[in-house]
């Protein structure tokens, strides 16, 4: 049995390595990540992981793993920051506040059975000055990331508290992932 990682994220691949797992191949699914009208953050994250997993064609004996990480303030879903201006707006919103980081994982086993799990983490940023926000934006680190930040880098020094899965905020909750991979029949240590 071999694993297909439905993600081009180097972070997800690195996190899988912490479980002693090396994907046999990488497939980068191309799906529309636009939230549906009225869709709540948990449902959105779960739907994206499932759609990513289903978008990958499997060969006999393959298992696919897909994930999604969604940052939300209340019901508001913060997308990936594509420009410095979007990142600035997100960081100003997150400054001094708690927000949810919802990571979903979907595994489809060799028989075609899909299993999914959610991990919810509460992250609280310190109240950031405009200079701190601008310095973080200048680092280029948070572009292309949900909520405009990457916890595994410089942003970690701006986070006052975290309640939940650190690996989930990074992009792949390891406890949930390990559980799903074992249920799918992948041998783990």
UniProtKB/TrEMBL annotation:
Q: Gene3D superfamilies this protein is in?
A: 3.90.950.10
- Example GO molecular function term? UTP diphosphatase activity
Catalytic activity line of the entry: UTP + H2O = UMP + diphosphate + H(+); dTTP + H2O = dTMP + diphosphate + H(+)
Quote the cellular component terms of the Gene Ontology held in the record.
cytoplasm
Residues at the catalytic site: 68
Protein's cellular compartments: Cytoplasm
Question: What UniProt keywords apply to this chain's record, in alphabetical order?
Answer: Cytoplasm, Hydrolase, Nucleotide metabolism
Q: What does this protein do?
A: Nucleoside triphosphate pyrophosphatase that hydrolyzes dTTP and UTP. May have a dual role in cell division arrest and in preventing the incorporation of modified nucleotides into cellular nucleic acids.
Family assignment from sequence similarity? Belongs to the Maf family. YhdE subfamily.
The protein's name is: dTTP/UTP pyrophosphatase
Q: What is the lineage of its organism?
A: Bacteria, Pseudomonadati, Pseudomonadota, Alphaproteobacteria, Sphingomonadales
This protein's encoding gene: maf
